[in-house]
Amino acid sequence: MIVRGVDVAEFQGVVDWKALFEKEACRFAILRCKVGNNPGIDKQFHKNIQGARDAGMKVGAYHFPFPLPKLDPKKEVESFAASSMLGSEPGDIPPAFDLEWPPPVAGNGKKGWKEGGCSAAQVRDHALIALERMTELFGCRPLFYTYPYFWKAMAEAGGMDDFRKYPLWIPGGKDYVNGDGHIPDVSKEKAPQISLWGDDWSIWQHDGDGGRRMPNGVDSDFNVFRGTEEDFAAFCDSTRVGPPEEVDQTVPPSVMLQEARDLIVEDLIEEYRKDRANRVF
User: Fold this and answer.
1) Is residue 116 within a helix (H) or strand (E), and if so which, with residue range?
2) Residue 122 belongs to what H/E stretch?
3) Is the pLDDT of residue 165 over 80?
């Protein structure tokens, strides 16, 4: 048994959530909210929340961090929390931390860790501080998303055991991120492996920018949870560690100004998204 879902950002445009629910049998959606320390939030975030909920899906939000030396990981996730708070209440999917940028090694015109002043230990520490702060803010353990190649590069620093307490959202379909469109039979097919979790993944992003498309014809990322809808609901609540910290729910002015966006960085991220298919595990 599996529960099917999607994760989307503004790149997918206007989503037909009813069609996703009825024709693709998607029962959950994880929605991009914040990108690093950029001002504003994903332009489709609030519309996507409402559309997915109205269609009958469970919803969650993800943060795309910038693990750069001069940026404070706590401030990044505090801004994310004030912008979304999805995951702080029972019934929501735990918030997700999408660690995949910058690439460890420069290539194809893209800057890597060295060019950004990063190191394996520094990226590791940034992520662990952010994950711990997210746990405090939301009252639950966030999903941890990363690629096997990214993990391997970061793990060279050692000291990785603390990541294990976070449920793994693993990306990677056939031929890296580009799936061939089929829905995996999890009784026979294995998701990509990260040794610390082995086959104990929570969500598998099996088709990213690949063979499966949204109702509007745009590529998107499709996911599966291994279990029933009841199992999925229980999983979401099992990540809880206590009541969330009291957080100022006033959305910062920088978040309200959705048009005041760092377009250069956003364009770089979109280029990187397209470039992922050329990388190997």
Assistant:
1) none
2) helix 120-138
3) yes
User: Rounded to whole angstroms, how far apart are CA atoms 21 and 204?
Assistant: 18
DSSP 193: -
Q: Quick one: residue 217, left, alpha or beta (phi over 0 = left, psi -120 to 50 = alpha)? A: left
User: What is the β-pairing status of strands 219-226 and 203-213?
Assistant: antiparallel
Number of continuous H segments (helices) and E segments (strands) in the chain: 8, 8
**Residue 98 phi/psi, 5° resolution?**
-100, 90
**Average pLDDT of the residues in 69-81:** 96
pLDDT digits (tens, 9 = 90+) for 107-155: 988 899 999 999 999 999 999 999 999 999 999 999 999 999 999 999 9
DSSP H stretches of helix in 163-204: none
Strands (E), the chain: 2-8, 26-35, 58-64, 96-98, 143-145, 168-171, 203-213, 219-226
User: In this predicted structure, what is the pLDDT of residue 262?
Assistant: 41
Place of tokens 């993944």: 201
Q: Report residue 54 as tokens.
A: 């109205």
pLDDT at 70 over 80: yes
Distance CA 187, CA 2 (A): 10
Cβ(223)–Cβ(7) below 8 Å: yes
